[in-house]
Write a structure and sequence with these properties.
Length: 250
């Protein structure tokens, strides 16, 4: 690292579990962020600010004024812009050494096999089960660590699958019926700090995975209740009748 980088990241470098080796690991890392709405824009902001070398952002939506209370990466002037285009510009303005690839297309049209071949961590920040299923299956095959989160109303959940280390359980052990009937923020509401907290935790899990600091458990489901500001944890187990991983490992 040069003198400017040592100064910029000096507070992170003071952490004994992180140190120079952790910072260099971030600098060399490639993180794929699928969805740059409420979850992804916050996660991407912290990853870029922390010094992750490359981000690939995937989203095909545009910014609406109703997004602004929770999607803090965007400004009033970005309303009507493509999210990944605005995100790329705003992130690179914060960190000029950052490399950002912006893919303006649905997930099913993205070259996932090629992307995951170079990705160190994948963040699932979507709002529909169709994309979640596609992404988790691709990560399981590629053995790419997947950090998934969701938020609705006052509630959120976070789970990391270490597909690079373990094969069970998988996302479909948790949600065996991945039909596109998920609750929508458009009809059920969401509070900005709730979704922002989950996006922040996604960034934290990614940084720990990349740097080797701390502990990131496979299949540990964390549930957040914003009304009481409390967390619950559940250890997931492999579903022997899972349509994906049972068939895959048989």
């Amino acid at each position: 690292m040069n003198e400017q980088e040592l100064m910029r990241y000096s507070r992170q470098l003071l952490l004994p579990e992180f140190d120079v080796s952790g910072q260099l690991a971030l600098k060399d890392a490639h993180v794929v962020v699928v969805g740059v709405g409420g979850l992804g824009n916050v996660a991407a902001l912290f990853l870029a600010s922390a010094g992750v070398g490359k981000l690939t952002l995937i989203d095909h939506d545009t910014i609406e004024s109703s997004n602004l209370p929770r999607q803090v990466l965007y400004q009033n002037s970005n309303v009507g812009d493509l999210k990944v285009v605005a995100a790329k510009a705003n992130l690179m303005a914060r960190n000029t050494s950052l490399v950002v690839d912006a893919l303006v297309k649905p997930l099913e049209q993205c070259p996932l096999e090629d992307l995951l071949a170079t990705a160190d961590v994948v963040l699932e920040c979507t709002d529909n089960f169709t994309s979640r299923q596609l992404l988790h299956r691709a990560c399981a095959v590629a053995k790419s660590p997947l950090v998934s989160a969701a938020a609705i109303r006052w509630e959120g959940q976070l789970v990391t699958f270490r597909y690079d280390q373990q094969s069970s359980p998988c996302y479909e052990c948790l949600y065996p019926d991945l039909s596109d009937q998920a609750l929508s923020c458009n009809t059920n509401g969401i509070l900005g700090p709730v979704v922002g907290m989950l996006g922040t935790f996604q960034a934290l899990e990614a940084i720990k995975l990349l740097s080797g600091a701390g502990e990131v458990k496979h299949g540990q489901l964390k549930l957040f209740d914003g009304l009481t500001a409390t967390w619950r944890e559940m250890r997931l187990t492999k579903d022997p009748s899972c349509r994906f991983c049972s068939a895959k490992n048989s």
